[in-house]
TrEMBL record:
The organism of origin for this protein: Kribbella yunnanensis
A Pfam family annotated for this UniProt entry: FGGY_C
Top-level division of the source organism's lineage: Bacteria
Entry-linked PANTHER family: GLUCONOKINASE, SUGAR KINASE
Protein name: Gluconokinase
Length: 473
């Protein structure tokens, strides 16, 4: 990573927490003790709602900056960068006030769209990198228009930027997560807007990667050390995580494991390979895209199982990788688009009375690893070679067994990102043009583990197909 002096303030707009932390500008590593966190608890409803309270979220984030200020950490800050959850939306009235909570990616409410036989969803997907799925604004906005009378729409990061700087703008990265961006032009897609039933002027203007804002007078008085410090456009957390792990070109895939999991490749937007139907594509910045596949079960599965089974240890150390007779298909939270498996579809096959809590945990981590491997192999085929792999994220950092399991399942060496704060690190790298390296251990797959997983894979695929079919009944 290119060395610079000073420090950076990173804001991380997650679904389970809003955080502010100070990074060294030399390598984007966290400054010890300079972290403040506000816990976020989404509200879930029987109607499919999954929302965040906007005022509480933003005030909690601002409180994190107050905490850093009190600790003397908001001095010598050179830039403010943001890593943010993708896909959120808020309906706003004519004064810019919120009519709804923050609607998150997990919210299942939307409208079904019947666009007739003339609509070419394959071409739409190739152009926008998205599908007509409830995750995206193409189906969220028509639903919001039917429920209330909004004058405009914005995502959570757009409203955070507006609160800090007084300007409501969005980045090409955040806009790509709405499903309304033309990936090639970096502007809103006309057909997507027509489907959503809106004009571009009711959405936040898209600013270039080099845009910067500055804190409004109110916050300049509140945090005097940040006066004049440039605020950079936010980066979607998936794109930021790739860059933050050191996977920022088309030779390397990043596998990140947090609450959910994903496998992605960053590559130039110009001359990008044709997008297969079952992969998505978003933007990193003005010149780069990120193509990949996401999975709904990962760290959330690990946390659920260790709690339900009351495991004393968080790792299945008594079970060899690929050894378990039990097959776990990790569809507890359903699947991401374009697949349509609903939540509540997770299954275990082959249970017997001699199985233990560790058996179930090992089977679940193995099932998640096999799901990620499906995405990795599709990316290998897309880019025409076996990709190098970097592992990163909180789940990776927390489990040595899972790191070895993923490495054996991929049947290739992996590098581990030593820095768990991959999203903030990546947002800093995107904003400042840095090139981070993984910096962690290098793992070589154990041949015996590889052989056991290879023998397990056909049975897993067969049982997975059965689970998909059963979910449709």
């Amino acid at each position: 990573m290119t060395r610079t002096d000073g420090r950076l303030l990173a804001l991380d707009l997650g679904t389970s927490s809003a955080r502010a932390l100070v990074l060294s500008a030399a390598d984007a590593s966290p400054v010890p003790g300079a972290l403040a966190r506000h816990k976020i608890t989404p509200t879930y409803g029987g109607d499919g709602s999954a929302v965040l309270e906007l005022h509480e979220y933003v005030e909690g984030l601002l409180g994190c900056l107050d905490e850093l200020q009190q600790g003397g950490h908001l001095e010598a800050i050179e830039a403010i960068v943001l890593s943010t959850q993708w896909h959120s939306v808020v309906a706003l009235d004519s004064h810019g006030d919120a009519l709804t909570p923050v609607i998150t990616w997990a919210d299942t409410r939307s409208v079904d769209l019947d666009l007739g036989s003339s609509f070419d969803e394959q071409a739409f997907h190739a152009r926008t990198g998205s599908w007509l799925h409830r995750l995206y604004w193409t189906r969220r906005i028509p639903w919001l228009l039917s429920e209330t009378s909004p004058a405009s729409f914005a995502g959570l990061p757009d409203l955070v930027i507006e609160r800090l700087t007084g300007e409501r703008v969005t980045s090409v990265s955040v806009a790509s997560g709405t499903g309304t961006l033309n990936l090639a032009t970096g502007e809103y897609d006309e057909e997507a807007l027509t489907i959503a039933g809106v004009k571009a002027d009711v959405l936040p203007p898209i600013v270039p990667t080099g845009w910067t804002g500055h804190l409004s007078a109110e916050y300049a008085r509140r945090w005097p050390g940040l006066v004049g410090v440039p605020v950079h456009p936010p980066t979607g957390d998936g794109a930021a995580s790739n860059v933050g792990t050191g996977a920022y070109d088309s030779s390397t895939a990043a596998v990140t494991v947090g609450t959910s999991a994903a496998v992605r490749v960053v590559h130039p937007i110009d001359n990008a390979p044709e997008l297969p139907w079952d992969l998505w594509r978003y933007r990193v910045d003005d010149k780069r895209a990120v193509t990949g596949m996401a999975f709904s079960a990962a760290g959330n599965m690990h946390a659920w199982l260790t709690g339900v089974l009351r495991l004393e240890h968080d790792e299945p150390t008594t079970v060899q990788i690929g050894e378990s007779r039990v097959i776990a298909v990790p569809f507890q939270a359903g699947t991401r688009p374009p697949a349509t498996v609903p939540g509540g579809s997770g299954v275990y096959f082959g249970l017997s009375f001699d199985d233990t809590a560790e058996t179930l945990l090992a089977a679940s981590l193995q099932g998640i690893s096999l799901e990620v491997d499906r995405g990795l192999r599709k990316l290998d085929a897309l880019f025409g070679h076996e990709l190098s792999v970097v592992l990163g994220g909180g789940g990776i950092d927390a489990s040595a067994w899972w790191r070895r399991c993923l490495t054996a399942t991929f049947a290739r060496p992996t590098d581990v990102c030593a820095e768990p704060e991959v999203g903030c690190r990546g947002a800093a790298a995107v904003a400042l043009g840095l090139s981070p390296e993984p910096g962690g251990e290098h793992l070589t797959p154990n041949p015996a583990d590889v052989n056991r997983v290879a023998a397990l894979r056909p049975r897993y695929e067969q049982l997975r197909d059965m689970a998909v079919q059963a979910s449709a009944l």
